[in-house]
Specification:
Largest sheet: none
Distance between the termini: 54 Å
Keywords: Amino-acid transport, Cell inner membrane, Cell membrane, Ion transport, Membrane, Sodium, Sodium transport, Symport, Transmembrane, Transmembrane helix, Transport
Family: Belongs to the sodium:solute symporter (SSF) (TC 2.A.21) family.
Shape: globular
Mean pLDDT: 86
Number of strands: 0
Catalytic activity: L-proline(in) + Na(+)(in) = L-proline(out) + Na(+)(out)
Membrane topology: Multi-pass membrane protein
CATH superfamily: Sodium/glucose cotransporter
Helix content: over 70%
CATH class: Mainly Alpha
CATH topology: Sodium/glucose cotransporter
Pfam family, one: SSF
Number of helices: 21
Oligomer: single chain
Length: about 500
Amino acid sequence: MSVSNPTLITFVIYIAAMVLIGLMAYRSTNNLSDYILGGRSLGSVVTALSAGASDMSGWLLMGLPGAIYMSGLSESWIAIGLIVGAYLNWLFVAGRLRVQTEHNGDALTLPDYFSSRFEDKSGLLRIISAVVILVFFTIYCASGIVAGARLFESTFGMSYETALWAGAAATIAYTFVGGFLAVSWTDTVQATLMIFALILTPIIVLLATGGIDTTFLAIEAKNPDNFNMLKNTSFIGIISLMGWGLGYFGQPHILARFMAADSVKSIAKARRISMTWMILCLGGTVAVGFFGIAYFSAHPEVAGPVTENHERVFIELAKLLFNPWIAGVLLSAILAAVMSTLSCQLLVCSSALTEDFYKTFLRKNASQVELVWVGRAMVLLVALIAIAMAANPDNRVLGLVSYAWAGFGAAFGPVVLISVIWKGMTRNGALAGILVGAITVIVWKHFNLLGLYEIIPGFIFASLAIYFVSKLGAPTVGMVERFDAAEKDYNLNK
């Protein structure tokens, strides 16, 4: 393949740069807090871009463009829902969670925060939330590994099995070595690469198809309904796509960025940077899939790979329209999207296993050096399980992501959101919220009830469970005092 050598060289340079950043972060990692949260030292730019990059996994450049290519603008409701959800998450949760985790035992993980916030002496809240993280994140990690495998498979002609290991190896390497700082610093580089690719690619596709008027005529000629936002949709379908935005309140890898910010003052600036980045990236993603309809209609002789798997639309456009060296940079953006999210997910799973199981129940007096190395071992363990789950070549990225996203959004979203805005929430209310949210997602998904995306009933039922169960009891004096102190701190410094 003519593109292979320049692309391979570009990939190798890019991966080497990411591993080098991991080694630099290794020198700044002295204890478990550094490894898990970077010592709460992220400035506004790194917080913003790291939150964005850790959110937008391989589905941004594969799953979503593929859905738009297949169905037209009716699939863009998901992008609208995500933008609204992300903005509300920054507005209501980010600053408050940063302060609340500090006031509640300087919590390093979500299970740690829940346990301290609700004075759970039994450890039940910590265990259940850590198990939810491990179950859904392992599925989420598998989606990232599938996306990476698809990239290496189609770019270098590898077998799917070889591509699985090639795609995962670099991410595992720098996450293993550098922990949270490596993940956050590389996320910033990767977010820059992603926005470059998603602004440049649709512009070049537009030029290659003869400009806006010609492109739109070709898309309309293919199917006039491609422009119809309501095509083949129903009220339930639109609500389901918009419902993706609810997931933001419960994603541990995104919430960890808020917890790691250097101060509440950084949050407002980070929100503006992150939302600008996100809107531009999602707009570019929709444009790539949409303009791709016109390009492959005009060039059916090269449409085979996209017809076979519509999630390859960005990959094929990059290979066909750009100089091999530029194509290598653009395809590295997919690798960036995969690596940025996968690394965060591996780290959150590692954090749950190390902080919430190993340190809490097995080795309470373990040294910081021991805990960091246990964290690294857990990164390897979770990665190997995710690779095994991703071994089925028929996996689709968006399908895996949607299940994991719903699981977190329903199990943790209401608990996190309500815990930072309502002091009347109790430990039993939190337990009920996590269990009801997770079980609803699993049952709803299994029976495919009403054709409604499972995150919506999960989020609603979990919220109701939190409220009504909390009303059956009352928070302790200590819980109320810490909540009030954190809220006062937040209002003084926001």
